[in-house]
Design brief:
330 residues, six-stranded mixed β-sheet, alpha+beta, binds magnesium ion, 28% helix, Rossmann fold, globular, five-stranded antiparallel β-sheet, binds adenosine-5'-triphosphate
Length: 330
């Protein structure tokens, strides 16, 4: 089943939280909504869930108009950022809750709960109360609970953001593998670009209530369409056409106001006492070092393998890898 959203806008009073959203989510696709705080990610997720109204546009699931279907009847699975388990219920009871509401036979519920506990690898924890579980375990219970009713769509709002880095990285892989196996179309909100790039089939990059770009992680990274995307996803140096000319690149015809977005890994740096560049700072990142270079009044980001052989203040020359950089809308 495909979710199709066309021209969707949403206002809170006079404030427009969503502006002409067009988005399709295909069968068994994993889509991430990525963008800075306040850009409308949660609002869009809540509108899709039926927890918020919208003013214009349409939203169809498998050809059915969602506007005519209440939140409860959509049968979507939802997981929120903060732990939202029922505190007085065990893990197993939490997972079985939706089935119990639907008055499924007891034997069916316990079989399904067992299956889901195994799926999120919490077989040993069935009888624990939420406070007796770690944050990561609680979120796994929340995901199992969302999956219990075999949702047509899984909606995740920053489900990993309260967890520490290691647990988060592990759960990313787990959620993605589980989603692939079950084939449930999933929309996950995150403001973490690494999370979006590693998990999503497609990334929806949002800013100020609008979609800036939709693409595969590789497309979003290698060919950002706008200045915002080039800036928000990964690091870029943005050069005017005049500055870019210094590197021998010129904008496409008629796009003289475009900016040239340059990834640090595409900038080659070489120590040269006669060159115009000055190393302003070096940040060691483990496998690479990020080098800020003052270059004709601009700061250009470059990268070297491990630690460079020069220090701050060194004179350096910059050149571009073949095919480096993309022109983006200002
Ligand atoms: N109930 C509301 N009434 C009025 N304005 C709201 C309401 N809920 C959200 N907003 C506003 O709508 C905008 C989008 O909010 P939303 O919660 O969707 O952002 P977000 O992208 O999820 O941000 P975050 O990453 O911080 O969770 C914000 O400017 C917010 O202040
Ligand atoms: Mg949010």
């Amino acid at each position: 089943m495909t979710l199709d959203i066309r021209g969707l806008s949403k206002f809170y009073g006079t404030f427009q939280a969503l502006n002409e959203i067009d988005l399709s989510v295909g069968d068994s696709e994993f889509v991430c909504l990525l963008g800075p705080s306040g850009c409308g990610k949660t609002t869009l997720l809540r509108v899709i869930a039926g927890l918020e109204s919208f003013e214009t546009g349409e939203m169809m699931l498998g050809g059915r108009d969602l506007a005519t279907i209440g939140a409860r009847d959509r049968g979507f699975g939802i997981v929120f950022q903060s732990y939202s388990l029922f505190p007085q219920m065990t893990a197993a009871q939490n997972i079985g809750y939706g089935l119990k509401l639907r008055q499924r036979p007891r034997a069916e519920i316990s079989a399904r709960v067992e299956e889901l506990l195994a799926l999120v690898r919490l077989e040993q924890f069935a009888d624990r109360l939420p406070w007796q579980l770690s944050g990561g375990q609680q979120q796994r219970v929340a995901i199992a609970r969302a999956l219990a009713v075999q949702p047509a769509l899984l909606l995740l709002d920053e489900p990993l953001s309260a967890l520490d880095a290691r647990v988060r990285a592990g759960l990313r892989t787990e959620i993605r593998q589980m989603q692939k196996r079950l084939g449930i179309p999933t929309i996950m909100v995150t403001h973490d670009q690494e999370e979006a790039l590693t998990m999503a089939d497609r990334v929806v990059c949002m800013s100020a209530g609008r979609i800036e770009q939709i693409g595969s992680p590789a497309e979003i990274y290698a060919r950002p369409a706008t200045r915002f995307v080039a800036d928000f996803v990964g690091s870029s140096t943005l050069l005017s056409a005049a500055r870019a000319a210094g590197f021998g690149v010129t904008p496409p015809p008629g796009q003289g106001d475009s900016l040239f977005a340059l990834r640090p890994e595409d900038v080659l740096i070489r120590e040269d006492a006669a060159a115009a560049g000055r190393v302003r700072s070096i940040t060691f990142l483990g496998n690479v070092s990020r080098v800020e270079v003052d270059w004709q009044g601009e700061t250009i980001l470059a990268e070297t393998h491990r630690l460079p052989g020069f220090g701050e203040g060194a004179s350096v020359d910059l050149s571009l890898q073949p095919g480096a950089g993309v022109w983006v809308q200002p």
